[in-house]
Amino acid sequence: MPLQNDVNTLVTNRGICIALIFALVAEKLSLYYEHQQWLTQSQGATLAADWLARNKLRLALAVRKELSELSDQFAMQIATTLTREAGLYTVHEMMESLDPNYQSSNAQSLMLECESLFDLQYPQGETIKKCR
After folding, report:
1. Which of 36, 64, 78, 96 is most buried, judging by how many CB atoms fall within 10 Å of its CB?
2. Whose CA is closest to 98, among 86, 88, 108?
3. Under a CB-based contact definition with an 8 Å cutoff, are residues 51 and 98 in contact?
């Protein structure tokens, strides 16, 4: 993806990274609730590459690993704060929300959390360098 010096590209790159974190959290929680297992960092980076490829996008391996680590932290936080039943419901909402035609206030709240995590990890000036 070519990097351009305009606000729309910055928003697009940032949005892609945030959407990727959200998708990884959904997938990781799904695996956790189904099999009580967490993905390794390498498995998370591969899952990220698969998601990006389906969307005809690419990110460097180092960035995929960093975003996977952020998603690990958030997924584990969610898993420790919800009951199994609530977690399964949350995962269902997140997975359904991967379809842009599905709207969920719960998933939108979680997307905002992903955005906050991303913004903490990548202050405004670093977004352009890291997420491309």
Report:
1. 64
2. 108
3. no
DSSP state letter for 22:
H
How far is it, in rounded angstroms, from Cα 18 to Cα 116?
Answer: 9
| Spatial CB neighbours of 21, under 8 Å, sequence gap ≥ 6 | 67, 70, 71, 74, 114, 117, 118
pLDDT tens digits along 90-120: 999 999 999 889 999 999 999 999 999 999 9
> Which domain, by its residues, includes 11?
7-130
Whether 1 is covered by a domain: the verdict is: no
CA distance 59 to 52: 8
pLDDT digits 0-9 by tens, 53-75: 998 898 889 999 999 999 999 99
Stated length of the chain: 132
| 44 in any annotated domain | yes
Q: Is residue 86 part of a domain?
A: yes
What is the number of domains present in the chain?
1
Q: What is the spatial distance between Cα 57 and Cα 63, in angstroms, rounded to a whole number? A: 13
Dig out the tokens for 79 from the structure: 């898993």
Its pTM stands at 0.85
C-beta of residue 51 within 8 angstroms of C-beta of residue 24:
yes
